[in-house]
Design a protein that fits this description.
Elements lengths: L39 H14 L17 H17 L5 H4 L3 H16 L3 E9 L4 E2 L4 H9 L10 E6 L4 E3 L2 H8 L12 E3 L11 E7 L2 H5 L2 H5 L2
Antiparallel strand pairs: 1-2, 1-3, 1-6, 3-4, 4-5
């Protein structure tokens, strides 16, 4: 397979700038309305504490975060993800949409086995000013844990957080392609690598982590469905 596109200067593939639906804006723009000033790292740490408060297991302690991952390593991560997606039959947005749990569990396994890179399953939602993808709340999480709807439709988005806090998400943009009728795109154009220090912005959307690890997925039956 040919090499995938190089990463941009910020360590982010240029194609992760959201497609269509009036969201084609530059990630670096500073002229964007913000409703909160929390960083992803702050939210991630809060999610660790909240996960533990619920008695859910975290396979490995993510804190302290590592030094910033080198750009060359990020490029190798990007390449591995693209190769793995195509290898397992995830060819386009259509194949990836709605497959966040199996896709990111698979990628987590390959990152560890092929590159010896740790990553952390992260459960939450993605927020825009006019839409919330897989909206979650602490109330909904605690309600689901008390009365799991095993096999039912659970609103939760899953992605990976790398050891330096970088977000790795290969399915959110794919879902948006279908939802906003932006057309189908090749799988590698759905890979998002987002700097954890990027300011939260309601126009381009941002990730809100609530839980870390597979505990919630196991308790609610999602993890068992993927790995019986």
């Amino acid at each position: 397979m040919a090499r995938l596109p190089r990463l941009g200067p910020a360590g982010i593939p240029q194609h992760v700038i959201p497609r269509g639906n009036n969201r084609q804006v530059r990630i670096q723009s500073v002229f964007q309305k913000r409703i909160v000033k929390l960083s992803y790292v702050e939210r991630f740490i809060d999610a660790i504490d909240y996960t533990r408060s619920l008695g859910l297991k975290i396979e490995k302690n993510p804190i302290p975060l590592s030094d910033k991952i080198k750009l060359s390593t990020m490029q190798n991560i990007f390449q591995l993800c693209g190769d793995a997606l195509y290898h397992y039959g995830y060819q386009t947005s259509e194949n990836l949409a709605g497959q966040c749990t199996p896709v990111h569990l698979m990628l987590q396994s390959h990152l560890k086995s092929d590159m010896n890179i740790d990553s952390f399953i992260t459960v939450g939602d993605r927020y825009w000013a006019d839409y919330i993808y897989c909206e979650m709340s602490k109330n909904s999480i605690e309600s689901e844990l008390k009365n799991p709807s095993i096999g039912g439709g659970i609103k939760a988005h899953v992605w990976l957080t790398l050891t330096d806090g970088t977000i790795l998400d290969c399915t959110a943009e794919a879902h948006a392609d279908l939802l906003f009728k932006r057309g189908l795109h090749p799988a590698h154009k759905c890979i998002m690598l987002v700097d954890p220090n990027q300011e939260e912005n309601v126009k381009i959307g941002y990730h809100r982590p609530y839980l870390i690890g597979t505990g919630f997925l196991e308790k609610t039956g999602i993890y068992q469905v993927v790995h019986p």
